What does this fold into?
Amino acid sequence: MAEIDALYQALVLEHNRNPRRYEVLEPCTHRASGRNPVCGDRVELYLRLDGAVIEEAAFQGEGCAISTASASLMMEIVAGREAAALRELFADFEDVLRGRRGPDEVDLGGLAPLANVRGFPGRLGCATLPWETLLRALEA
Amino acid sequence: MSAVQESVVAGGGLNPELLRRDFPVLEREVHGSPLVYLDNAASTQKPQAVIDAELDCYRRYYANVHRGVHTLSQESTAAFEGARGRVRRFLNAPSEQEIVFVRGTTEAINLVAHSFVEPRVKPGDEIVVTHMEHHSNIVPWQLLCERTGAVLRVVPISDAGEFEVADVEAALTARTRFLSLVHVSNVLGTVNPVREIVAAAKSRGVPVLVDGAQATPHMPVDVQELDVDFYAFSGHKIYGPTGIGVLYGRYDLLAEMVPYQGGGDMIRTVSFAGTEYADPPARFEAGTPNIAGAIGLGAAVDYLLAIGLERIAAYEAELVAYAAEAMAEVPGIRLIGTPRRRAGAVSFVMPEAHPHDIATILDQQGIAIRAGHHCTEPLMERYGVPATARASFGLYNTRDEVDALVAGLHKVNRLFGLDT
It folds into this structure.
């Protein structure tokens, strides 16, 4: 049971209950929708960029605690950062989730509470959906 | 019949503790706990008799069926056609020629859409389904409507997850060419009054297909008593193999239907001037069939008939009522579907914990349930939920397992910081 307690640790549950920046951001410069057809999770992501820098972000959607917490944690991470750095962070995050690198080998920063998703292969898509949506929004 | 089964039958009622010994996988542990398998509406586990029947085919007498002169082919054909006879008995169909082997319920419905309904509809004609259908009984009709200009009409359901015979009657018009409905809902567990509905449709000259995928595991089905035109089910949901299923069709209807697929085994004679089709059921079984799968299905049918479908229905009705009642008492839980007559499935949602969170937490305790839209997105929309968690029961499930599930649901609440 230790694993499940670590997956649903207090910070994850707190973000699920009170997701940050859970709203529509208008006007925005970038937006994208993400959907996981396997489980029906969906996320709407809104970004306002100033040049290459994300000035403001917001999201709405429907999903499990892991995907909601992942999107909410992302809100605390992205402001003031550029696409390239976020791409790098997500690559590190995926490396940890897919077991290519250990959680101690990588500095996940604000995403560290979600490193435990790596023990639950069926749930990786929940954690990555908001990030895949973010990268798509930034490409648009 | 296994010794275990005999002792069960001799006892009058069904003793699941004895039956469980017929299912090797139920001995397994998952994450350190005994497996509690409550995903039977998605697929059922296999008894040793089914495993042995497939193994025996491949080890002793496997060969291609039909037209074979050599011994193995004759033995394979006898076993394959023997399975057809067992299925005929299972459904109480008048004739073996009315039993068409297909891949599963989905293929059976597609076959009827193409070969029976499509040639009979014109633009503006109507096909009727209900709001509680699986995607497999929605999408084939939408495709047919796109091809023909026909219109799909939907019988609404109540908040409890039911419809009345009168609701179906109200959806039938002078333009209705076909009614296709589910016998038992894979999400709500609702058992629909199929016999009355078929009678109402037929009195208006509307032919009916019943999707029996979720009914055949849980209750006796008699196609003559139901007076249904077509009845479909899947082998893997009645403790048989995957990739094999059955379409029952009234012979006079099958006989006037065009083939579904062309190929070997479905013809009488072929020449480049023209081809004459075989009689049913061969007309609808193009290509080499799932031989071992059909033989395994025959073994599954024998297994269920030996226990007795009435006995299974009585045991499961009591178990699923106990489950629904116990689950409803978990703080915060909302059951999706509260039908008067339920079989198999109990769907639910909980506060804060999404169905996928519930499924993950239960899995850590060895409890297998399903979370998602269950291939019924229109039904999810009807209840205003993106997904549900679903526990679904079979003949080997016990009250102890229900209690383990309920304890697991309390654990979900605790993990999410709720009083429970």
Q: What stands out?
A: The interface with chain B takes residues 1, 3-5, 7-8, 13, 16-17, 38-42, 62-66, 68, 120, 122-123, 126 of chain A (CB under 8 Å). Residues 2-139 of chain A form a domain with the Sufe protein. Chain: A fold (CATH 3.90.1010.10). Chain A has one domain: 2-139.
